[in-house]
Specification:
Elements lengths: L16 H35 L3 H36 L1 H34 L6 H30 L6 H4 L2 H5 L2 H26 L5 H30 L4 H9 L5 H21 L6 H25 L4 E3 L3 E2 L17 H7 L1 H4 L15 H12 L24 H13 L13 H12 L11 H12 L1
Antiparallel strand pairs: 1-2
Bound molecules: heme C (HEC).
Length: 465
């Protein structure tokens, strides 16, 4: 029989594998965006310094560069491979899809990353030994190499939302996958906000300057950079929203946590206010304040943004053909990829999953709950935590008053048909649905669904139907 190549599931009970990836990735975004923005800013400052005979600005570049070596390059180089490790186990087929389209893009990115790392070392350790022209050249090469790494990664990230060109499904081809409206809008948005982060983090360095006049000068430059980039970023964000698939817009409108929009607006307003303050009163720029602001941007800006980008991609993880639960849900003739849904519909999951002990392939009275757990791990746990904490706990959507057969009916009605916008089509055989329902019933279900009212009602009303 034809099998489907699902890998064993990485199950993380506390948070859910998706949130582990999200945490590592969000921290990485802070480091990587700060350093790319700083690289471009350094090129600008170096140019300015040489034109206006301002060697003191070169000292700022050196110190900020040194700070970045630890802050961005060490921690960024830990979280970067961290993303590879965590996504490879959390979403092996999602990563595989990306590698199949973009392996040379990534190779390109690594080349430029090496240039970038050499560049930052040169800027810091050769700062006082290079002549002015060479120093300027190094900073321009550093800036361009950094930005190229961002350019390449953004194309890959936007492919995760959807391929650049709709024709890609038929034709394949890396450029069709890479370039699309979403790529450019996302590049614009990230390019703007990376300068905001550069300005926020730069405050930690600038605050330590003793010379009041110099500190004031740098503080004002950072403040203007921060204000302009935050405002530009907000505009780019609107553009970005307009380049999303229709389903994403619906999820955005209906399914994001209530705190999402206020958090983003709040942090944007707070950032602009903060920079207005340091612009008018450079004295108020202190290292602790700048560090707190950096943390706030991470928690209230980047985390919601990354969570949202991940949510609105649902039910897909990559290219709108690999579902978040790793099943290939669509034909892609251009890549020689076939949907696995027909195979699963014909034979069920338990018969077609490769990594499964034989005694779990057939459901009996004695292994029903165990088989249900296998199904929950393979088909739900990528998006729903199976414990009480973490990402969208599965138990929150059901109540103790639901009978096993009611739960099974819901699973068949909503999931086997692919009736929801944000969940994959998950075609269960009748006995599989019952097994999964039996497992769900063991999750110590709350007496009333704990998910927010509207969602809970949606769940129970579907169950009751
Ligand atoms: C691609 C990710 C994904 C997968 C896989 C997934 N879900 Fe969901 N599920 C969601 C999202 C997103 C929501 C909406 C949650 C919200 O708004 O709180 C949801 C909501 C639900 C709800 C609430 C009712 C509803 O229709 O909105 C139930 C019940 C549910 N999921 C059960 C399951 C079960 C059982 C599985 C595995 C067989 C599963 N889900 C697999 C993403 C997923």
């Amino acid at each position: 029989m034809e099998m489907i190549g699902l890998y064993p599931t990485w199950f993380e009970p506390g948070l859910g594998s998706g949130w582990i990836v999200g945490l590592i990735a969000t921290i990485h975004v802070l480091f990587s965006h700060t350093s790319v923005g700083a690289a471009i800013f350094f090129a600008f400052l170096a140019n300015y310094a040489h034109r206006h005979q301002r060697p003191d600005l070169l000292e700022f570049i050196r110190r900020y560069g040194l700070f970045l070596l630890v802050f961005s390059y060490v921690l960024g180089s830990i979280t970067g491979p961290g993303i590879w490790y965590s996504t490879t186990v959390a979403s092996p087929r999602g990563i595989s899809a990306l590698i199949h389209s973009f392996v040379w893009m990534w190779a390109t990115e690594w080349v430029f990353f090496v240039i970038e790392v050499v560049g930052v070392y040169m800027l810091v350790y050769l700062a006082n030994r290079l002549n002015a022209r060479t120093h300027l050249k190094v900073s321009v090469i550093f800036g361009l190499a950094s930005y190229t790494t961002m350019l390449v990664i953004v194309g890959i990230l936007s492919f995760m939302m959807w391929p650049g060109q709709a024709g890609w499904y038929e034709t394949g081809g890396v450029l069709n996958a890479f370039y699309g409206p979403n790529t450019f809008a996302q590049l614009g948005m990230r390019s703007a906000f990376m300068f905001t982060m550069t300005a926020v983090v730069g405050g930690i360095v600038a605050a330590r300057f003793q010379d009041a006049a110099f500190k004031k000068d740098v503080a004002r430059k950072l403040a203007w950079l921060g204000i302009c980039s935050a405002v530009a970023g907000a505009a780019m964000f609107q553009w970005y929203l307009n380049t999303l698939p229709e389903t994403a817009a619906l999820v955005l409108a209906n399914r994001l946590p209530a705190w999402f929009q206020p958090a983003l607006l709040g942090i944007l307003g707070a950032t602009v206010a903060y920079f207005a303050m340091t612009l008018l009163q450079p004295r108020t720029l202190v290292a602790g304040g700048a560090a707190a602001m950096t943390l706030a941007v991470l928690v209230f800006g980047l985390w919601p943004e990354e969570v949202a980008r991940e949510s609105i991609r649902k039910p897909w993880v990559a290219g709108q053909y690999v579902y978040s639960n790793q099943v290939v849900g669509r034909d892609v003739p251009g890549m020689g990829v076939r949907s696995e849904i027909p195979t699963i519909e014909a034979h069920g999951f338990l018969k077609t999953m490769v990594f499964l002990p034989d005694h779990q392939r057939t459901i009996t009275d004695s292994n029903r709950v165990e088989a249900g757990r296998v199904l929950a791990l393979a088909t739900c746990s990528n998006c729903h935590s199976l414990s009480a904490t973490g990402m969208r706990p599965l138990r929150n959507y059901f109540s103790a008053s639901n009978s096993t057969s009611e739960i099974a009916d819901y699973l068949q009605a909503a999931l086997s048909t692919g009736n929801t916008l944000y969940m994959p089509q998950i075609p269960f055989k009748d006995d599989e649905a019952l097994a999964l329902a039996s497992f769900i019933a063991t999750l110590n279900l709350p007496s009333a669904p704990a998910a927010t009212q509207a969602k809970a009602q949606a769940a129970t009303s579907t169950i009751k139907e």
